[in-house]
Design goal:
Four Helix Bundle (Hemerythrin (Met), subunit A), mainly alpha, 9 helices
């Protein structure tokens, strides 16, 4: 006796355009850059580690914009991006500074690194909670505290300065440790910092802005370390300005 044939049709597998995976691929590339930066730092290749963290920062700026452009934003992509930020802007800069700066101040230097990394993960957790709590269409003019990518670049300021003036004696290790802790505390502080998405210019100044952007880009390519040092100092000045503006509009 033969069994009756099933009348159910096989389920059709859902197709996924490969281009929708591009934002996640960029995020994974950023993670690879951060992991490689840690390896280079452990091997003593400080220059290569810094360059890879900068590449990871570039990828971090691209993945979210690609996701919005392709309308492929997913909860998985958001969580992956947050984990990548913790690795690239928390762990990697911390390991880099530990291997580069703290030759004689191992224990105290490690404490500074741990404080910085923990502050970074707390900053990212607060940002994620804030994003989920926001209502649709809400716009924020300021971040609360220094964002993780900016915190990483500020933390690496002593490295930028050492590459710029290689003949100048290195900043004392205790000063670098205190500086790292200070940057970590800025990330979890309540200090308002500008959100680039909210900044606007007058239409007639667009050409001037584009010329200025090209000048900054040319400076970064020609004199990268002194340009990065100046950008870090400019960010500190921008923090003071944003705090003053935020205080005036309350």
């Amino acid at each position: 006796m033969t069994e009756p044939r099933s009348t159910e049709r096989p389920r059709r597998r859902a197709e996924l355009p490969l281009i929708t995976l591009l934002p996640n691929l960029v995020t994974v590339a950023a993670i690879c850059a951060g992991l490689s930066a840690i390896r280079f730092a452990i091997e003593g290749n400080t220059l290569g580690a810094v360059q890879l963290i900068l590449v990871a920062g570039l990828f971090d700026g691209l993945d979210g914009r690609l996701a919005r452009m392709l309308k492929s934003e997913t909860p998985l992509g958001a969580e992956l991006d947050s984990l990548a930020d913790f690795l690239n802007f928390g762990v990697a800069p911390g390991i880099l500074l530990y291997t580069w700066a703290f030759g004689d101040l191992r224990n105290e230097g490690w404490i500074a690194v741990v404080i910085y990394v923990v502050c970074c993960v707390m900053r990212l957790a607060r940002f994620n909670v804030g994003n989920k709590a926001e209502t649709a269409g809400a716009s924020k003019r300021f971040f609360t505290g220094v964002p993780a990518p900016a915190g990483a670049f500020l933390a690496m300021l002593p490295v930028f300065v050492s590459f710029t003036w290689s003949r100048v004696p290195l900043v004392p290790e205790p000063v670098i440790a205190l500086y790292m802790v200070a940057v970590g505390l800025l990330m979890i502080s309540r200090i308002p910092t500008w959100s680039l998405k909210s900044l606007t210019i007058y239409r007639e100044n667009a050409r001037v802005f584009l010329v200025g952007f090209v000048a900054v880009l040319a400076a970064l390519l020609s004199f990268p370390w002194i340009s990065l040092s100046i950008l870090c100092l400019a960010y500190f000045a921008g923090m003071a300005w944003s705090w003053r503006v935020a205080k005036s509009i309350r």
